Amino acid sequence: MNTIYRVAGVSKQAYHQHVRxxxxxxxKLHELVLQLDLLRKEHPGCGLEKAYYSLLxxxxxxxxFIDIFMELGYRVQKVRNFRRTTIPVHVKYPNLIEGxxxxxxxxxxxxxxxxxxxxxxxxxxxxILDAYSRLIVGYSVSKRLFTEQTTLxxxxxxxxxxxxxxxxxxxxxxxxxxxxxxxxxxxxxxxLGMVNSMCEYPWDNGKAERINGVVKNxxxxxxxxxxxxxxxxxxxRSVKLYNEEKPHKALKRVSPLTxxxxxxxxxxxxx
Length: 271
Description:
Distance between the termini: 59 Å
CATH class of the largest domain: Alpha Beta
Strand order of the largest sheet: 3-2-1-4-5
Number of domains: 2
Order of helices and strands: HHHHEEEHEHEHHH
CATH topology of the largest domain: Nucleotidyltransferase, domain 5
Helix content: 40-55%
Radius of gyration: 21 Å
Largest sheet: 5 strands, mixed
């Protein structure tokens, strides 16, 4: 092995430093792709130059940013699926909720990740809601897009919210983002007997998409938020207000929590 390094003209230490640098850049690029995915979901016509100045990655210049994402197929025209990484991502599970009627809570949970900007920094909001009662059963606020900070944290909260309920067969539906088929996330859902479902297009995950807009536009954008800690506090407050006080026309004009208490029979209880 040492002979190989000598022939190549580099030391073992220099070689490993080079590999670590490449891996770090790939990790940064992967997160940047996810950030652009979220930006494009809400602003499909956002060009790459405008996207660069919205995201402002401190490790990548504008021209290189545009070149990289042009190569990855992020032209505005004919954009069909924004979920791309250095290796194209495809939906891993079938859409199990299309045309499916929901008759009780804990039958279908829907989830999505969105972003919220504070002082030109992007933070990430993950919500899981019960498709029948519209109750937000789990959520997370994070600085990064790693699974353990987004979907896994929200799922743990949802499980705690439904403590004592048998979740076997509960469908967890998402838009196919990488955090929803991360091995640790799948390990958790499978251990509970939950069934993963995914869709290719945002409109096939409409309830989760709408909750993003409700929390951001009806609550957060009306608050003065200047830091990450303030954002966490305001999301907590917003979810509580939404769950306990916001009336829904589809829920007999009561809040999700009231609807569950008044109109829904007990869900799937454990034996």
